[in-house]
Specification:
The protein is α+β, with helices and mostly antiparallel strands and 340 residues long. Helices cover 42% and strands 20% of the residues. The N and C termini lie far apart (82 Å). The mean pLDDT is 91. Bound molecules: 3,4-dihydroxyphenylalanine. 3,4-dihydroxyphenylalanine binds next to strand 9 and strand 10.
Length: 340
């Protein structure tokens, strides 16, 4: 009988199949309830004592071999199917591509655009590489004017004339007025550049939104009302104050603070205990600027304002370090989901 078992061992070792049905039949033949193994184990009793050891050993060998064989053949089939599943079936629906999210700067920019679009402002853009006229001179900042020092400029070319990276989006005001006569209602979002040390609070590249409204009889109260509407919409805060300030291109000029409140410890920290936060600069467009842009200051007046998008995004999202906007860390960026 040992001889019979040995021939089964050979059979098991030689068995190959990629057909699940066949493998199952093989399993039943050897390992099933009424299978050969059972028959042999039953026969064990009849084996003469001196052969029992050898018989048992060979029988166990057959059992292990058959069990391993079934397992191994099934695994081969499964791994082949997996391969097919990934690379073979071209009709399979594609894997979903991960959906990115909009950059927080874009989200805030779009929110600002929408708020002003609702009251009739269009969007205008200008070049990032500017000439001296549009960035400075036309804005009432003639050469050697001390206020030019307020903005550390990156120059692209100094001779024969200054070409520079714009230090603010106010340059787009000039371009827009040169091309369009009043009534003008436009906002100009864009990237600006300043030769400043990079820190948690400031960067050499950032974004601004410029606003310009020129028409007959535009007054300072129109400016204030527009800014109040804007801050209500964006921040949900309805208390603002205008602090007298100085910009060469506006007269009078002001800085706009919103009342943020002093409810939490963070409120104390970001408002330095005052409850107030500065969010932008503004003023009535200086008549010199209108004249420089071929608009008659006797007939028209207007207001302008300018704000930094990063600063506003940092307030809205409570972001403590401006550098996070430019590091492209997916863990930071994917937190911002927006429909706008
Ligand atoms: N251009 C100014 C800056 O970059 C911001 C600004 C202030 C713009 C007052 C304006 C304005 O239009 O009226 O700091």
């Amino acid at each position: 009988m040992i001889q019979e078992i040995k021939s089964h061992i050979e059979e098991v070792e030689a068995f190959q199949s990629e057909d699940l049905q066949q493998i199952e039949e093989f399993r039943i033949k050897y390992l099933g309830k009424k299978g050969l193994m059972n028959d042999f184990f039953k026969a064990f009793k009849e084996v003469p004592n001196e052969e029992k050891k050898e018989f048992g050993k060979t029988l166990n060998q057959l059992k292990t071999l058959a069990t391993d064989k079934v397992k191994q053949l099934k695994e081969t089939i499964e791994s082949k199917q997996e391969e097919k599943g990934i690379y073979g079936d071209l009709t399979r629906p594609a894997e979903m591509a991960p959906i990115g999210s909009r950059h927080p700067i874009s989200i805030v920019k779009n929110q600002i655009i929408e708020i002003f679009a609702n009251i009739g402002f269009n969007v205008s853009e200008g070049p990032e590489i500017e000439d001296d006229w549009h960035n400075f001179t036309a804005l009432n900042l003639p050469e050697h004017h001390p206020a030019r020092d307020m903005q550390d400029t990156f120059f692209v070319q100094r001779d024969p004339k200054d070409i520079l990276l714009r230090t603010h989006t106010s340059s787009v005001q000039v371009r827009y007025m040169e091309e369009n006569q009043p009534p003008i209602r436009t906002i100009s979002p864009g990237r600006v550049f300043r030769n400043e040390d990079i820190s948690a609070r400031s960067h050499c590249i950032f974004h601004q939104v410029e606003g310009l409204y020129i028409d007959k009889k535009v007054s300072f109260s129109d400016l204030k009302q527009t800014l109040l509407y804007f801050t209500k919409q964006l921040f949900g805060k309805s208390k603002i104050r205008l602090r007298p300030s100085y910009f060469p291109f506006t007269e009078p000029s002001a800085e706009v603070d919103i009342y943020w409140g002093l409810e939490t410890e963070t409120d104390y920290r970001i408002t330095k205990g005052t409850g107030w936060l500065e969010i932008m600069g503004c003023g009535m467009v200086d008549p010199n600027v209108l004249t420089n842009c071929n608009i008659d200051p006797e007939k028209y007046s207007g207001f302008a304002f300018g704000m930094g998008i990063e600063r506003i995004a940092m307030l809205l999202y409570q972001i403590g370090d401006i550098r996070m906007f430019y590091e492209n860390d997916a863990r930071f960026l994917e937190q911002f989901k927006s429909s706008i």
